Amino acid sequence: MLNLRHFGGRAAELPVRHETPNSLITKLVRGGVPEPEVYAALSFGRSRAVPARQEISSLGAEIVNFTVLVSGIACRYKIVGDGRRAIVGFVLPGDFTTPYFSEPMRPDFGVMSLATSKIMELPRAELLARARENPQLLQALTWTAVVDGNIARVWLANLGRLPADKRTAHLLCELRHRLALVSLIDQKCFSLPLTQQDLADALGVSGVHVNRVLQRLSHLGLARHDHQKIDIPDPARFEQFAEFSPAYLHPDMPETALDKRLEYGR
Question: Nearest-CA neighbor of 217 among 241, 236, 246, 192?
Fold first, then answer.
């Protein structure tokens, strides 16, 4: 059972000054926004450190600021009727902790750090004003919300149609591609500071079953999980096993262009 009492407290705030969320910059520049305009749009943010397993935003809380994950990893979660946690999305560096929306909202989920992380808070009114003045920025920000919706639908479809081993492999493929987009992996290996219970809560299975699935993937030579690192010896073979296509992560480009665009680690 998730115990939210462990997630109290607040880290000291730090002025941004020369610090900016490099992963979000990478995403927006790749989305067509000139780099100087991205820096200008994000220059008014404030960053703070967040310890592991601390709540970043509560279920139903009004969104006053847009919050970007600068480093670390977080999750969007809901608590089901018997008190167990269900992870409904992972937040990676460069992601908004709640989807970008132009209208006020009170999300029906909470957001919690899963590892020591850093976030940047951007005043909502200021970012919206800059987006209205810059069509390229507005489009790039809107695409982040489109991708969030795509990911949610793919997770729902996989939960109903794929067996646990393929569902696990598909999730690992997704995380690999999302990290590659912001140049946070090398070609075959990436850091994934998640527990097996974190994966279980995202996949809808038990922690014991996740352990068995990871052992099976290792036995098949598809993926190795060691000390919070994932090693995928043959990414193409692994994606074929997972029935994975990255098109839903990049709705703004034809599928034939994806391999060229995503040059891992560059």
Answer: 241
Which tokens belong to 250? 């990049």
Domain assignment of residue 144, yes or no: no
DSSP letter (8 states) at residue 82: T
**Structure tokens that stand for 49 in this block:** 């450190």
- Domain CATH code at residue 206: 2.60.120.10
How many CB atoms neighbour CB 161 within 10 A?
Answer: 10
Q: What is the distance of C-alpha 249 from the center of its chain?
A: 11
Do 123 and 171 sit in the same domain of this protein? no
Burial code of 227-265, b = ≥16 C-beta within 10 A, e = fewer? eeebebeebeebbebbebebebbbeeeeeeeeeeebebe
Q: What range defines the domain where residue 201 resides?
A: 162-261
- What DSSP line would sit under 188-241, residue for residue? SEEE----HHHHHHHHTS-HHHHHHHHHHHHHTTS-EEETTEEE-S-HHHHHHH
Please check whether residues 173 and 130 belong to one and the same domain.
Answer: no
Query: pLDDT tens, position by position, for the chain (266 residues)?
Result: 333 333 333 333 323 333 445 788 888 888 889 988 888 888 888 999 999 999 999 988 888 899 999 999 999 999 998 889 999 999 999 999 998 887 778 899 999 999 999 999 999 989 999 999 999 999 999 999 999 999 999 999 999 899 999 999 999 999 999 999 888 888 789 999 999 999 999 999 999 999 999 999 999 999 999 878 999 999 999 999 999 999 999 866 544 444 444 444 44
